[in-house]
Amino acid sequence: MSDLYEEDPIVIEQSVEGWVITKCEDWRDYYESNYEARFEEYYRLWRGIWDPADSERRSERSRIISPALQQAVESNVAELEEATFGRGKWFDVSDNMGDTERQDVLFLRNKLTEDFEDCMIRKSVAECLINSAVFGTGIGEIVIEEMKEMTPATQPIMDGDLQAVGINIQERVKVKLKPVLPQNFLIDPVATNVEDALGVCIDEFVSRHSVEILQEQGVYRKEYLGSAAPDTDLEPDQDITIYNDDKIRLTKYYGLVPRELLNDAMADVNQEAEEGDSFYVEAIVVIANGGILLKAEPNPYMMQDRPVVAFPWT
Questions:
Q1: SS3 readout for the chain
Q2: How far is CA 89 from the centre of its chain?
Q3: Nearest CA to 255 among 3, 2, 15, 23?
Q4: Residues of the chain whose pLDDT is less than 50?
Q5: Closest of 106, 73, 70 to residue 89, by C-alpha
Q6: d(C-alpha 106, C-alpha 294), whole Å
Q7: Which pTM does this prediction carry?
Q8: Which residues are 148's β-sheet partners?
Q9: Pick from 129, 118, 26: which is nearest to 75 by CA?
Q10: What is the pLDDT of residue 130?
Q11: How does pLDDT run across 22-59, given as a tens digit for each residue?
């Protein structure tokens, strides 16, 4: 283990959730100081919402918002969607060099197309594109869900004289793309991309029942959730009445954390400690309402990828 722990007593005294929340609060302060007011102005101009801050003169009394900007944004996004999806097959899978078998790649492409349609990936990509056009950067979170897929089925009974009608239930894993608004995305300020950052965070309100279901399934720890404090900066629409009941502020952190803190968190639920000599370890940490640890584990993905994609508007 690295000697950095002996030189930094603050790290020893912290918990992994405290360490993550401290980082996220610092990144939130940086976003609010440098980008929040500008992004809110972009959102208002795109949606046609009048605000006194957008007036150019004190004597200006008109509240008319020209739809020209909204038309320009949606027109450019429509052109990009047509260029991406208008050819029917909007992605391809290349075969290995020297591989004489062609059917394997054809099967994978068709199956991937079918799964994308089932998970409505095109709709999610289109929403990421509109966010990119308005705010300058499109952000999406890759979500993996274990679901029960039900299909109608029949089965012969009574020696084939009758047929029983019912459903077949099959467990399968689905990969979805979830668009993320800029106010719900936090990143290391000195980083230039997701891979080089210390970590990235998705900070948003979610329905209480979605968290409780994952607790029942064993994905999250069974902790008392409590109630989320209101925060209008995280809501998708700032011009509506804020709903405060039955929602949880969920903070999902993907990135590097001190190995010792992660091992302490895993020891609390009798999980095997992460072995290694480096100070940091790639991990996934999920926190509810700013301090309730729901999940802390090493990154389970084979390539140690962070399930977040971000791209600039071109």
A1: CCCHHHHCHHHHHCCHHHHHHHHHHHHHHHHHHHCHHHHHHHHHHHHCCCCHHHCCCCCCCCCCCCCHHHHHHHHHHHHHHHHHHCCCCCCCCCCCCCCCCCHHHHHHHHHHHHHHHHCCHHHHHHHHHHHHHHHCEEEEEEEEEEEEEEEEEEEEECCCCEEEEEEEEEEEEEEEEEEECHHHEEECCCCCCCCCCCEEEEEEEEEHHHHHHHHHCCCCCCCCCCCCCCCHHHCCCCCCCCCCCCEEEEEEEEEEEEHHHHHHHHHCCCCCCCCCCCCEEEEEEEEECCCEEEEEEECCCCCCCCCEEEEECC
A2: 26
A3: 23
A4: 1-2, 5
A5: 106
A6: 41
A7: 0.84
A8: 171
A9: 129
A10: 93
A11: 999 999 999 999 999 899 888 888 888 877 776 777 76
- Measured in whole angstroms, the distance separating CA 257 from the mean position of its chain's CA atoms is 19
Neighbours of 62 (CB within 10 A): 7
Whether residue 20 contacts residue 253, with contact meaning beta carbons closer than 8 Å, is answered with yes
Token pair belonging to 37: 């007011």
Q: Is the Cα torsion angle 98, 103, 104, 110 positive or negative in sign?
A: positive
Beta carbons within 8 Å of 303's beta carbon, 6+ residues apart:
none
Domain ranges of the chain: 4-49+68-86+103-312
Tokens 């309402």 appear where?
A: 289
Helix 68-85, helix 121-135: angle, nearest 10: 140
| Cα separation, 245 vs 239, whole angstroms | 18
* Residues facing 173 on adjacent strands: 146
